[in-house]
């Protein structure tokens, strides 16, 4: 009598409507985290996404899971946009510039406060998205340096600190209208990154390790 062999079955693929609901939840959450902060009620996110509370909790068992998905989706999206620019133009500084402006569109600075003490910065999904983004941007910077486009005294940390500061909304409703100046000021910053350098920067370059220890 032969021995029975187990048949491995693939996990069923999510239905298209389920995927759309998940995408709507993540998009609504990103908008509301930017507008109202990381503690916005999940039922308000569900209402904006046009789904029921149960659908939110079926996809994201807690707030941390939803916040993590929002952060990962933002990092993945700006990475894809920068990669596309590099593939189309071959210009590393242009790809770097696109990354900076795409980060502003995603309001990365407004999402930084979600990285609270309770946020799991070492979750595998978050690490994978972060490592991909860091590797990509550092590659742009190295190629731009080698091409003589990027001044040699700046590092990845300098770039991310500036993006975080320039894209974080100021407190108070009276400051909301300054958002229209963000891309203008980011372009001034990018022009300051170009080689040859017109000044000597004080202190030392902010590295990736400096950011992780901050």
TrEMBL record:
SUPFAM superfamilies: Homeodomain-like, Tetracyclin repressor-like, C-terminal domain. Gene3D superfamilies: Tetracycline Repressor, domain 2. GO terms for molecular function: DNA-binding transcription factor activity; transcription cis-regulatory region binding. Pfam families: TetR_C_43, TetR_N. Keywords: DNA-binding, Transcription, Transcription regulation. Residues 41-60 bind DNA. InterPro entries: Homeodomain-like_sf, HTH-type_TetR-like_transc_reg, HTH_TetR, Tet_transcr_reg_TetR-rel_C_sf, TetR_SbtR-like_C. It comes from the Bacteria. PROSITE patterns: HTH_TETR_2. Residues 19-78 form the HTH tetR-type domain. This is TetR/AcrR family transcriptional regulator. It comes from Streptomyces montanus.
């Amino acid at each position: 009598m032969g021995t029975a062999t187990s048949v491995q079955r693939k996990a069923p693929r999510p239905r298209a409507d389920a995927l759309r609901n998940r995408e709507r939840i993540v998009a609504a959450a990103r908008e509301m985290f930017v507008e109202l902060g990381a503690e916005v009620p999940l039922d308000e996110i569900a209402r904006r996404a046009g789904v029921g509370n149960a659908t939110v909790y079926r996809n994201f068992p807690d707030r941390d899971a939803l916040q993590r998905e929002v952060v990962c989706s933002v990092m993945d999206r700006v990475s894809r946009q920068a990669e596309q620019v590099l593939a189309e133009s071959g210009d590393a500084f242009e790809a770097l510039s696109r990354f900076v402006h795409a980060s502003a569109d995603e309001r990365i600075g407004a999402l930084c406060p979600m990285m609270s003490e309770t946020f799991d910065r070492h979750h595998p999904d978050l690490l994978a998205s972060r490592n991909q983004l860091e590797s990509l941007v550092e590659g742009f910077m190295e190629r731009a340096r080698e091409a003589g486009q990027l001044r040699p005294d700046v590092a990845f940390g300098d770039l991310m600190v500036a993006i975080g500061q320039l894209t974080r909304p100021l407190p108070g409703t009276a400051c909301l209208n300054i958002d229209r100046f963000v891309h203008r000021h980011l372009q001034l910053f990018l022009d300051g990154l170009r080689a040859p350098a017109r000044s000597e920067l004080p202190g030392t370059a902010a590295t990736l390790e400096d950011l992780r220890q901050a």
